[in-house]
Every structure is written in structure tokens, then in C-alpha cells.
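Teaching note: in complex prediction, the entire set of molecules is handled at once rather than each chain in isolation. The prompt given to students was simply: 'Predict the structure of this complex.' The entities are:
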Amino acid sequence: MDNVIEIRGLSKSYGKARGVIDVNLSVKEGDIFGFLGPNGAGKSTTIRSILGFLKKDAGEIRVFGLDNVKDREKILADVGYMPSEAWFYDTMKVSDVIKYAADIRGGDYSEEAAKICERLKVNTDKRIKELSLGNRKKVSIVCAMQHKPKLFIFDEPTSGLDPLIQKHFFDLINEYVNAGATCLLSTHVLSEVNRYCRHAAIMREGRLTMLDTVDIDEDRFLKFYEEEEEM
Amino acid sequence: MKHVFLRELKLNLKQILIWSLTVGILGFVSILLYSSMQGDMKSMADMFSSMGAFSDAFGMSTLSIATIEGYFATEIGVIHGLGSAMFAAITAIVILSKEEERHTGEFLLSLPLSRSRVLFAKGLCVFVGLVLFTIICGLLYVAAFAGLGEGLTASELMKFLLLEFLMNVEVASVCFLVSAVSTRIKMGLGLGLALIFYVYDLMGRVVPDLKDYLFIGPFSYANASEILSGKESEPAAFLIAAAVILVSAAAAVFVYNKRDLVS
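The expected output is the structure of the full assembly:
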């Protein structure tokens, strides 16, 4: 299987503040890859570097075999991204936001969007400013999934979602991955990694360590966080 | 890119209408008041034209305030010049940085769009906003001239509006660059820049030592009294305007493409 994401020697700092240091990561096609780590460890920096939001200091990032800077537009056409904080334009209606994302992608995904909205119980008539964080996240999921991308990147997707919607969300991911997609999932929730991920890595102090198994017990998991606090 | 432009224009339409109607209606009412003030103006014209540097600053030494051209230059010229510059500044200074301040940048830039395309769509929206502002104000001035029964010639009004528009584009380009650099909305800075450009021009016309450097500012070629008295602006003023617009646009593209996007 080919690597959908390939990161070699990624380093990024914010002035004197540490971002990530010499990160190497490969995510294979068809994988659901769990990305664990305490707050501030560098998970979002890695994700935001992949998407080209941040300019890396060193290293190389390839997505679908393409350079993430030179071929950014081509890559993003096949990526569905959900940020940890789902923000949209306050005055727009949910249906307009979903259509706006589809229009920019240059396609009519109304059928798929309607299917996802129904499963996640998204009220498309409301304005964004009327929505709670959980409901904004559901809109974000629709925008990330409606075009059936080859790669999903989710940054802490389930915070703010109720348990039933969380289940529907992972059911959808499994369906898309079974149909050939790949998923990179950043999370703090150990059970999500145990239950849904096939491979996982943990970030601590800006450095990434691959885990040999996703079956991590809670004691070992919490130890990662304790070590981070001690550092 | 078309969708970003159209959405942005739709979002800005209310602001464009509020500003253009406010400035346009102020100009409209001021023009209509000319006939009722005409008698008083005649007696005041001589006094206003002999106030030395202040007469120069407000253009009352080149045109008589008792004529429609002089009245338009001293009243509507100031309202339109300052109002349009403030509108240009706040529209341009908000347009890019609002995406980061309101945390919508990640949504927009996770779509298959290059930063340059986003920049171009938003820059075009500012430009179209300024065109609409100029047209709306121009139509209101024409309507007021029709109501008054006298007014500027079509070529005088066109020249005035085009030069004001060029000044607006220059002010907007500087503020657009600030917006590309900044991750926070700097509306106060935008208004401040517009006022600084205006005061620089005013001071340049009052302080003799500054007169030689007047052409640097965007208001130098947009002075209504000079436009309506047929005085040609210095070619250097237009060269500087073109340079400021091009350098600001190029720098905005360069900086916006190179910097980190704040979440």
C-alpha cells in the first residue's frame, strides 16, 4: 500500500517557542491513524503544517505523493479537514456554508451532504451564530465529508459531540475508509484510538513516537501525559 | 475564486450602501443648500479668499466659494474626499485579517484555493466596492445638480470622481497590505491612516516648507479646488500613486503567501 501522508524531518518553531522537532510519519492508504498527545505537544502544528497553514522550518511533507506546498490546491481537492474549533461565517445559514464549500470545490455534493446531515441531525435552516460548538462541529463534518475525499484529517473531532453523534461520526468514517479513504485522527480520547484506529503515534514535547499497538491501557496512556507534565 | 468574491461582495454590500449613501446624501443635501446660501456666500467669498494659508488649504484662494464650482470644491470636495478615503481604508484593512481574527481562515484555506486566489478575490471585492461607492455618490451629485438647476459640467464631475477614486485605490492598497500582514482587525489604524493622509495634505498647503513634498500624499492630486480650477497635478504624484498601489499589492501577495496562518 502507498503512503498517503509522508513526513520526513519536519521541524517548526514559533520564534523561540517550540513547535515540532524532526517529525517523521507515514500514514498508509486505508488506515485510520490515531494521533495522540497532551495539549501543546505539537499535534495541531503537524496537522496545520500538512495542510500548508504553517510554513515549515525544515523537512518535507508529501500527501498523495505530492509536495504539500507546490501542489497544495491539488492536494486539498482530495482532503476533508475538520479543525478542533469549527468556526464559520456567523451570518450565513448552515445550508449556505455547506453549499459554499461545495461551490469552491467545484461540484454538486448535495445528495451526499443531505445524507450526512440526516445521519448527524444537522438543521440546515439555522444561522451559524445560532449554533452551539457541537452543532458547528457537525457542520464542519458535513463540509469535510460531502465531497468524499481520499484523505480525512480530523483535529479533536468529537469534543462537544454527544455520544450518539460520536457513534454516527465514526460509522461514517468507517464507511468512507472501507470505500478506500484514509483518516488521520488527532484525539485525547484513548477509547477512540483503541476502538477505531489501526495504527497510532504519540507526540510529546514536539517529538513523535510511533506506538507498536493501538491497544494501550489507561495506565500507560496516562503515563505519557504525566511524563509531559514532568518535562 | 468567483465564489469567494461573490460571497465577500454580498457580505460587504450593506457597508458599501451605508457609506456611499451617507456620503452621497450629505453631498446631495449640501449641493441643494447652495441656492439658499448663495446670497450669504457672496459677502463671505472675499473674506474667505483673503485668509492667506487657510484659504490655500481649503482651496478658497483659487475658486470663489460663491460659485457652484468653488462651493462644490470647499464643501462636497472635503466631504467626499475624507468620507471616501475612510471607507476605502476600513474596507481594505478588514478584508483579510478578519478571517484570522474571527477564526474562519482555517475553513476558507482548507478548501482547494491558493492564498493568492483568496487575496485576488478579496482585493477585487475592495476595488468593486470603491467603484460602486463612486457611482452611487456621482449619481446623487448629478441628481442634486438637476434639482438645483446648475452644477459642474460632466467632464468636471467625471475628472473629480476619477481622481477621488484613484486616491481611494491608493489608500485602500496601503490598508490592504496592512490587512495581509496583520492577524487582527486594525480598523482604528485604517481610519488613522486615512486621516493622516488628509492632514498631511492640509498641512502641506498651509506650511510653506512642506509644499514641495505635497505630491507624496494621495490627497495631492485629489484636491477638488485644483481639479475644478483646471490646475494640473504634478506627474510625480501619479507616479508615486502607481508605485504605492503596485508595491503594496505585490508586498501583500508576498507576505500573505509566506506567513503562518493563525488559527
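Point out the following to students. Residues 163-178 of chain A form the longest helix (16 residues). The helical segments of chain A are 43-50, 72-76, 94-105, 110-120, 133-145, 163-178, 190-196, 218-230.
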